[in-house]
Amino acid sequence: MEHWQWRATVKSAVRQVLTHRSLGTVWRTFAPTTVFFSHRYVAPGASGELNDPKVLKPLLERLRRERFTFPRLDQIVGCVADSQPLPRRAVAFTVDDGYRDFEEIAPVYAAYDVPVTVFVSTGFLDGACWMWWDRIAYATRHSACHELHIELDGEALRYQWTDVGGAHAAATDFVERLQWVPRDVREARTTEAFERLGVTPPDKAPEEYAAMSWDDVRSYAKMGIKFGPHTVTHPILAETPAEDSAWEIEESWRRLKEETDETVSVFCYPHGGPRAFGPREAETVRRLGMLGAVSTGHRHPNPSGDAFAVPRYPCPDRGDRLLLMAYGIQ
Theoretical Cys-Cys bridge with 234: which of 18, 121, 132, 155, CB 3.0 to 4.6 Å? Predict the structure, then answer.
């Protein structure tokens, strides 16, 4: 057995022991409030057992059985804003961007009366744009040459693939590298990549990368799902001019309220890490009279912390890992 296989086997065994039902009463006594975020459910090249309703259902059942609560996100942010104690044994779920494939999982959350907040990029739902990283993924998957050689920041990048999985891996690495370069550089390198791949993505997002519609939003709202603003075009706000940053936040909130009454007064910063937003963005959100904002920091919310930078955990792809995180075991 290879070393990495041995480590994976040991980790799996440890998780099984720690999440055994007999230990649940111990861990849940100390369980904090945990906010999770996801993006896609049936994305091309994606994996993860929690994408499967058959796996998610028993997981929610177990959390209910172990007396976890599912507060609304605005309740959690409100506690942080008011420096109030957070509930114990609490889990909240959020979903970013507004992809159409949310339809695969929305009924599961609704059936178990688990509140979910979906943060939508309004330009995406309006059909004015589709996500730039999806355009790259589309190009690699549909290229006939199966390779991409391109320079970025003085580094020569060379990608080759033979199957869909390899194309997905190449696109993922290229996107990660492009994410933090200036927007004009990213756009130039993306255009160059399309030319080298011999693929021109269509103006409208294909079904596999499509956004939910506003009718979908209103349908989900009837299930108890809430919605929050996530900018118009999903830029890294800290890298945009002040006027553009303010417009992205203000217009997404205005447009969302125009389409549904089932909103939460909480903003979600695109990309969400410490480099993605700053005091300027937080002040814009505050000026709009919103309760707070969420980021993607990897820690639990702090009741005496900043309501305009409430951290969330990436939703793991395994149920036992999610349980450990809900218990507060990292």
Answer: 121
